[in-house]
UniProtKB/TrEMBL annotation:
Species classification: Bacteria, Bacillati, Actinomycetota, Actinomycetes, Mycobacteriales
Protein name, per record: Uncharacterized protein
Native organism: Candidatus Corynebacterium gallistercoris
Positions of region (Disordered): 58-78
């Protein structure tokens, strides 16, 4: 079964559903960032296609070993046929679809991507050429191999596939303010208010998922300009940021601004945790 989800695609860029011999195909036009109601049609997939269930997430979480968090693995569910969802849209649209699949424990569904924009962060992470023509990208999403890939989620139940940023709030003039808080990757401190101040980093962190273990990498964002004498802004020094890799990233602080795949969280947060989901995704990538 093949689904082509056109998410906020302009009429002049709409792709027709491909014809695959022996495979059913369904094309749907959805909002630019589909919500839960828009994606409700995915709910029956486990009942329709899974012929042998895998170990439950609850049972996995109680296991003392963490082998399932090493190199990503093929999904253990047995299905009656291949099910592939191809998302034609933005990184945010793709993340919304994968978040839905995660919630219904259907990450066995293969996922391909046709990015609308050449600057797609997910395309960079997945090794896709977002500057290729839309038909070429569709062909790759249709025929490419689906490879096991860590899925990075957060404690709000949202998946990040391209990039997430945690920064300070915006001032009344719209300018970014320094981040007051701390960020830890696994057990190592990446960012702390007092440490960042001493080293010059004051602008939060950037997190990207990794195609393999451990699951994510995070780096300090370039420093904000500082105020010098007479209130003039001083250009930030040319500093070398730290990069940490791990399975989880925790951030806490004052009025944190969180942006996932280009979508700002609707309100400031005091804390947020990104971590590798127990099941891996099956994504068409290099």
């Amino acid at each position: 079964m093949l689904f082509l989800l056109r998410c906020g695609v302009p009429d002049d860029r709409r792709l027709d559903a491909p014809i695959v011999p022996g495979e059913r195909t369904q094309a749907l036009d959805l909002p630019a960032i589909p919500g839960r109601k828009d994606l409700k049609f995915l709910d029956p997939l486990p009942r329709q296609f899974v012929t042998q269930d895998a170990e439950t997430l609850e049972a996995m979480s109680k296991r003392p070993d963490v082998s399932h968090q090493d190199a990503p693995q093929p999904d253990p569910h047995v299905t009656s046929e291949r099910v592939r969802v191809i998302v034609h849209g933005s990184d945010a649209a793709l993340a919304a679809v994968v978040s839905k699949l995660m919630r219904i424990d259907a990450l066995w569904v293969q996922v391909g991507y046709v990015p609308l924009h050449p600057g797609s962060s997910v395309a960079t992470v997945w090794g896709c050429d977002a500057t290729a023509s839309q038909p070429q990208l569709l062909h790759t999403a249709l025929t490419g191999d689906a490879l096991p890939t860590p899925v990075i989620r957060d404690d709000h139940g949202l998946v990040t596939l391209g990039v997430a940023e945690v920064t300070g709030p915006q001032g009344e003039d719209g300018k970014e303010l320094p981040m007051v808080g701390e960020v830890i990757v696994d057990s190592q401190v990446l960012y702390a208010q007092e440490v960042g101040a001493k080293k010059g980093f004051n602008n939060g962190v950037r997190m990207v998922p990794t195609p393999g273990a451990p699951g994510l990498a995070a780096v300090q964002r370039p420093p904000l300009p500082r105020r010098g004498l007479f209130g003039r802004e001083k250009a930030p020094e040319n500093l070398e940021p730290s990069v940490l890799r791990g399975r989880a990233m925790q951030a806490g602080g004052e009025d944190l601004r969180v942006v996932r795949d280009g979508v700002p969280h609707p309100r400031p947060l005091k804390s947020v945790t990104f971590y590798r989901h127990l099941r891996d995704g099956q994504f068409v990538r290099r």
